Amino acid sequence: MMTLQEIINSIESLPVEERDYLFEFLRKKEESEGDNFWQGLQNFRKVIQNEAIIFTDDDFADLRDRSVGREIEL
Question: Does the pTM exceed 0.90?
């Protein structure tokens, strides 16, 4: 496994074109990960709106498990 410094040294030894390609690739990858979340949220909202789904606080009232949990033997 390479250390961070070894990775940095390896990147610095790349030709400029390959370094630029690497940085562009990483930038696009980071952007697309954010887009996937945002797109998923937008799709969810669209389904809620198209299906005329209405939910209130009552729908979430008994969602939480309020038990104390399991017994622990010491």
Answer: no
